[in-house]
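Inverse folding, one chain.
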């Protein structure tokens, strides 16, 4: 049974045996789905439910040296977007011990509704930040560039055409960052 399927009874309630069988089949199908979800979690992978829940997720890409800044940006985004259900994905907070980093990043990038990259003198030299930018660009995710003491000429070419936000001016742009558009409407 897939997650978005509902249980339907095979016929109207006339026969207690058939009704009980239908209910038992629904319970069994829901139990199997619950087991699949638990199995996914135990394997360190996000379940379908997590991907649906994260449809309003903002992925934050940054250098490890910029973790403090990234944590504050994530907190600001979540505070401003709380009433809309906006959450953030931040590797330091969302990838647990023993989880596959590559797979967690890949799944979170696919599931995110918006991609935020903190560009600093550190992050523009980091391979993983550039890989994440390329993945977000390839997946056609809305990209928000936040500059931390970086001049526009140092912005990677894949995102150079995006209007960048200076970190010192972030507060003025939080409402736009937390506005998550329905992806179907954009396409």
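Residues assigned per position:
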């Amino acid at each position: 049974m897939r997650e978005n399927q509902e249980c339907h009874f095979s016929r109207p309630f006339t026969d207690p045996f058939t009704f009980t069988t239908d209910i038992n089949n629904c319970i069994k199908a829901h139990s199997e789905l619950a087991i699949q979800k638990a199995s996914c979690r135990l394997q360190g992978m996000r379940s379908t439910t997590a991907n649906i829940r994260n449809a309003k997720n903002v992925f934050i890409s940054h250098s490890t040296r910029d973790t403090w800044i990234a944590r504050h940006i994530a907190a600001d985004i979540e505070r401003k977007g709380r009433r809309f259900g906006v959450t953030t994905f931040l590797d330091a907070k969302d990838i647990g011990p023993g989880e596959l980093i590559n797979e967690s990043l890949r799944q979170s990038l696919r599931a995110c509704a918006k991609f935020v990259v903190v560009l600093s003198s550190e992050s523009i030299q980091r391979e993983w930040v550039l890989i994440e930018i390329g993945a977000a660009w390839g997946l056609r995710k809305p990209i928000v560039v936040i500059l931390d003491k970086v001049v526009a000429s140092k912005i990677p070419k894949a995102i150079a055409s995006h209007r960048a936000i200076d970190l010192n001016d972030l507060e003025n742009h939080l409402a736009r960052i937390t506005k998550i558009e329905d992806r179907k409407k954009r396409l």
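The longest strand covers residues 114-119. DSSP finds eight helices and five strands in the chain.
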